[in-house]
Amino acid sequence: MSNMKFSALNLVPIKEGQSDKDAIDDMVALAQKLDELDYERYWIAEHHNAPNLVSSATALLIQHTLEHTQNIKVGSGGIMLPNHAPLIVAEQFGTMETLFPNRVNLGLGRAPGTDMMTASALRRDQHNGVYAFPEEVEQLQTYFGPGNKQAYVRAYPAVGKNVPLYILGSSTDSAHLAARKGLPYVFAGHFAPQQMKEAIQIYKELFEPSEVLQEPYMIVCLNAIVAETDEEAEYLASTLAQVFIGIARGRMQPVQPPTNDLQGLLTPREYEMAKQRFNDSLVGSEATVKQKLEDFIEEYGEIDELMGISYIYDQDKQFESFERLKNVVQSLNK
């Protein structure tokens, strides 16, 4: 087993009874805890028109997190390029890199991160950014590169900052792009495990070395809820189940407390859906999650980094879960 790194993703969800500010404070508190635990990176998502998430102004949240942490890399999981002019993205992230050298990551996604009506409001020129994604990634690489390779329009102070770029994906399309460009690849296994195996294989097999990477660098994001016992983890994961089913029902509700009566809250079909999603997640005691991670590596091959996301209502339990996840990864690395 190679030396797998461990990191975290946060959508900045609002919990039942919280305000927007409470959710942002929780985001910072988790970042500080993961900084203490020597997590590699902490990424913040981008979502729009979602009343249960506070991750619409991703760059502002990243800067706020950088200001309140010491060592952990902070970045976007991701910036949805169809919503933004690459020049402005480069200016923002170049500014953060200037303020916080070697701590800024730029994860890039090709989806709008919202519904199509909201996406239209986000990008008023109706530009079809999904299809322009490869070219816009190249534009960003140029903006962050050396000045002597740039045209008249430059993204000051991004010039020469070389902010690391990561291609995000939940399908095989992004795997081809990341491989062709020789960039790190991050797969969203926490919500779209269906094409994960094929996407990982495509990325590794088709990877072309670049100035950035000589070998593929594969990050997989998975739901991770690790507790003292399997029973406690499954109880805490009832919150995650309610998140899944809320999405399936089209209801954007705040994160709910855990429950011992999950079957009573869900239809039989929803309950089976939730159980299936648990099978694709790292839920259990440290011993159970270690076995699940070993099984994952057996099926999907080795990965360079595990990025955990955890919907846990009690923040102290969330802290504990991430500490236990670190223990699991470190035990596999021995």
Number of strands: 9
> How many whole angstroms does the radius of gyration measure?
19 Å
The CATH superfamily bears the name Luciferase-like domain
Low-confidence stretches: none
Major sheet attributes: 8 strands, parallel, barrel
Number of helices: 12
Shape: globular
How would you describe the oligomerization state of the chains in this entry?
single chain
Helix and strand content put the structural class at alpha/beta
What percentage of amino acids are in beta strands? 15-25%
Strand order of the largest sheet: 1-2-3-4-5-6-7-9
Estimate the helix proportion, in percent. Answer: 40-55%
The CATH architecture category equals: Alpha-Beta Barrel
- At the fold tier of CATH, the topology name is TIM Barrel
Mean residue pLDDT:
93
EC number: 1.14.13.107
InterPro entries: Bact_Lucif_Oxidored, CmoO-like, Luciferase-like_dom, Luciferase-like_sf
Pfam family, one: Bac_luciferase
Protein name: Oxidoreductase
Could you explain how this protein is built, in words?
- There is one protein chain.
- With 334 residues, the protein is of the alpha/beta class.
- The chain has one domain (5-229, 285-333): TIM Barrel (Alpha-Beta Barrel), CATH 3.20.20.30.
- 46% of the residues lie in helices and 15% in strands.
- It has twelve helices and nine strands.
- It has helices at residues 20-36, 58-67, 86-99, 116-122, 129-144, 172-181, 196-206, 230-248, 262-265, 268-279, 286-300, 315-333; strands at 5-10, 41-44, 73-80, 104-109, 165-169, 185-187, 218-227, 282-285, 305-309.
- Strands 1-2-3-4-5-6-7-9 form an eight-stranded parallel barrel, surrounded by eight helices.
- Helix 6 runs parallel beside helix 7 (196-206) and helix 11 (286-300) crosses helix 12 (315-333).
- The longest helix has 19 residues, at 230-248.
- It is globular, with a radius of gyration of 19 Å.
- It starts with a strand and ends with a helix.
- The model has no long low-confidence stretch (mean pLDDT 93).
